[in-house]
Inverse folding.
């Protein structure tokens, strides 16, 4: 083989390699999977109770941990099976039931303050992640029913244990279908 | 004129309407205790405006309408006993309970309405104040519907006299006996909604009603009115299908008939409008078909809203001992709902009480797996694939449910009727819708909680930052002062 045919061939190959390499490099930079959008999508599946049962300080931090691959999809008791399954589907991981280590799944509940016992200490106000407790020092506090997520975070700070969790009135069970056909 | 488009799918069902239609509509006496459900069948409760102990007369407003609920008026004169939850057609709901004093004193404000002198908007206002609601079963406020139609500039007012359920015949009876009222009501509603013409549509198996209506239209001499015959196919009386059958225009997904220039009203509603303009009476009565083999004399009754169903059944000779009733159904046999008790009161949406004896019910069969025969797809009047939709609903697969059109299902029950495996498809679809609604509510709650949490965090951060700055400021000042002292 003489150099007259070899050189142009090598030149073309080299030019192709450079051009394709540059294009791929540009595309890789341009189409990099967006970590933020993945976190958003995970966060959208979480129930937003902000209860911290997953050992992260809220739903968003848990979503970030899942996106980093540091936490599993089985840590959200309020979301239950449905959330665990949806997370696993989104991430293409094996679906796993909620680990009982992080708490048990139960029907939605809300906090209710026993107003006869409340001393108006205001300690539960900053503890509520969704600002669903209304009150001021030396005034009786109350929970805004529609905003409470039932996260239980107001229970520990209460010095007189006057907060209890009750079944949520909003969570009505599915009505029985009563269609008949004759 | 005949129907332009014929329904796809649908069923031709054996009719059970002859016995109640043998005798004229009988007027029922006012109840001694009227129970007015705040939800009259539209799914939304009106707001009670009378306290317990208040004195009311016939026609006194007792609840104010909102959204899909119309105003509600007392059918008796007497005292409000309570506003409390009671069993209703929809299961249970808040009711205004009124004890009658038996004097039937009328509200002095009820006078005939000079409708020809009023413009559309004023008429609609009067219809709203009279609490008129769709008597076809949905009980949606008539005024709201007409106002929407007026804003959309509809061209056709379609009066629905198609009564395709095999047992219900209250509209048939009304069209036979009160055709003139229907025609008058149609003319008033034309003035209210601004449509150019009105069509009264009914099926070809109602020759008496047709003759009565045609005579009434001829007598009124109004050229904007006409009577149209449709084939007797179930469920042609459903609003969207009726519009398509009469005009050939299909109502788009998620839209209402005004979108295609049509507004639909039940013929009973038209008669109610006529009663308002001739006698000044609000919506206080409706015709209810009481039928089925479990009742002695099936018939059509004009009952006061709020009358317990027991009184209707008593007026029909009571339950038949030879064929004891096994089930009470509100509405028709295909689209109706089973009633838990016969103490529930008549509502504006209640067109029929079916007292079903064992012979009216199909032999109980257990549900079998779907064999994918496709019979349900052949009868579905809105062109869905019920077998596929059923799979998606059972798997709670949101994408599949949307793709196979759960939102378009009109819950007519045709697929149930033909399913050889006896799968309760319609009930599953209803439950699926309910689940979807709950999921939706949950998502909204989550979004709201998230926003509140973010505000909470931001506020705490800002507080911490402000405290830190105040602390540093204080320290700097303390140091500065100390330096000055030295």
């Amino acid at each position: 083989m003489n150099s007259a045919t070899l050189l142009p061939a090598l030149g073309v190959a080299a030019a192709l390699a450079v051009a394709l390499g540059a294009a791929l490099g540009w595309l890789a930079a341009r189409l990099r999977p967006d970590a933020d959008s993945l976190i958003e999508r995970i966060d959208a599946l979480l129930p937003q109770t902000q209860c911290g049962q997953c050992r992260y300080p809220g739903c968003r931090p848990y979503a970030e941990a899942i996106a980093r691959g540091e936490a599993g999809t089985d840590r959200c008791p309020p979301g239950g099976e449905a959330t665990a399954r949806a997370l696993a589907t989104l991430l293409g991981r094996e679906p796993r039931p909620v680990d009982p280590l992080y708490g048990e799944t139960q029907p939605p509940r809300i906090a209710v303050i026993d107003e006869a016992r409340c001393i108006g200490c205001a300690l539960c106000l900053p503890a509520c992640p969704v600002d669903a407790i209304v009150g001021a020092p030396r005034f009786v506090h109350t929970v805004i029913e529609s905003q409470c997520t039932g996260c239980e975070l107001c229970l520990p700070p209460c010095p007189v244990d006057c907060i209890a969790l009750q079944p949520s009135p909003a969570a009505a069970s599915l009505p029985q279908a009563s269609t008949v056909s004759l | 004129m005949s129907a332009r488009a014929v329904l796809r799918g649908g069923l031709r069902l054996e009719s059970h309407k002859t016995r109640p239609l043998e005798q004229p509509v009988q007027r029922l006496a006012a109840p001694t205790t009227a129970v007015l459900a705040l939800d009259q069948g539209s799914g939304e409760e009106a707001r009670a405006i009378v306290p317990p102990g208040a004195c009311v007369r016939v026609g006194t407003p007792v609840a104010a309408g909102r959204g899909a609920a119309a105003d509600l008026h007392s059918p008796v004169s007497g005292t409000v006993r309570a506003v409390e939850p009671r069993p209703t057609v929809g299961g249970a709901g808040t009711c205004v309970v009124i004890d009658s004093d038996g004097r039937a004193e009328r509200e002095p404000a009820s006078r005939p309405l000079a409708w020809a002198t009023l413009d559309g908007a004023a008429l609609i206002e009067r219809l709203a104040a009279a609490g008129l609601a769709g008597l076809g079963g949905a009980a949606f406020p008539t005024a709201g519907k007409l106002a929407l139609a007026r804003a959309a500039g509809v061209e056709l007012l379609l009066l629905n006299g198609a009564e395709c359920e095999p047992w219900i015949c209250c509209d048939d009876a009304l069209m036979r006996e009160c055709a003139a009222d229907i025609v008058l009501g149609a003319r008033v509603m034309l003035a209210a909604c601004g449509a150019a013409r009105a069509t009264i549509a009914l099926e070809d198996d109602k020759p008496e009603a047709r003759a009565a209506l045609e005579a009434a239209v001829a007598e009124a001499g109004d050229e904007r009115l006409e009577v149209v015959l449709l084939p007797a196919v179930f469920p042609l009386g459903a609003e969207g299908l009726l519009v398509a059958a009469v005009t050939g225009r299909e109502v788009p997904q998620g839209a209402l008939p005004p979108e295609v220039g049509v507004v639909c009203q039940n013929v009973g509603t038209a008669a109610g409008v006529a009663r308002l303009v001739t006698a000044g009476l609000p919506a206080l009565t409706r015709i209810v078909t009481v039928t089925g083999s479990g009742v002695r004399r099936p018939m059509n009754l004009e009952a006061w809203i709020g009358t317990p169903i027991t009184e209707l059944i008593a007026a029909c000779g009571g339950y038949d001992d030879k064929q004891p009733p096994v089930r009470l159904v509100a509405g028709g046999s295909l689209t109706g709902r089973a009633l838990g008790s016969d103490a529930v009161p008549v509502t504006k949406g209640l067109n029929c009480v079916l007292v079903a004896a064992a012979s009216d019910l199909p032999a109980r069969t257990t549900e079998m797996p779907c064999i994918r025969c496709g019979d349900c797809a052949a009868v579905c009047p809105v062109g869905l694939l019920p077998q596929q939709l059923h799979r998606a609903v059972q798997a709670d697969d949101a994408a599949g449910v949307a793709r196979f059109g759960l939102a378009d299902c009109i819950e007519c029950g045709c697929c149930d009727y033909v399913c050889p495996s006896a799968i309760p498809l319609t009930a599953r679809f209803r439950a699926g819708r309910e689940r979807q609604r709950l999921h939706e509510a949950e998502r909204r709650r989550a979004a709201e909680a998230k926003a509140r949490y973010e505000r909470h965090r931001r506020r705490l951060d800002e507080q911490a930052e402000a405290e830190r700055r105040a602390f540093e400021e204080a320290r700097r000042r303390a140091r500065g002062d100390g330096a000055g002292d030295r």
Remarks:
- Residues 57 and 77 of chain B are 4 Å apart (CA to CA).
- The interface with chain A takes residues 91, 327, 329, 333-338, 354, 356, 360-362, 411, 413, 416-417, 424, 426-428, 430-431, 434-435, 438, 441-442, 445-450, 452-453, 455-457, 460 of chain B (CB under 8 Å).
- Chain B has a mean pLDDT of 90.
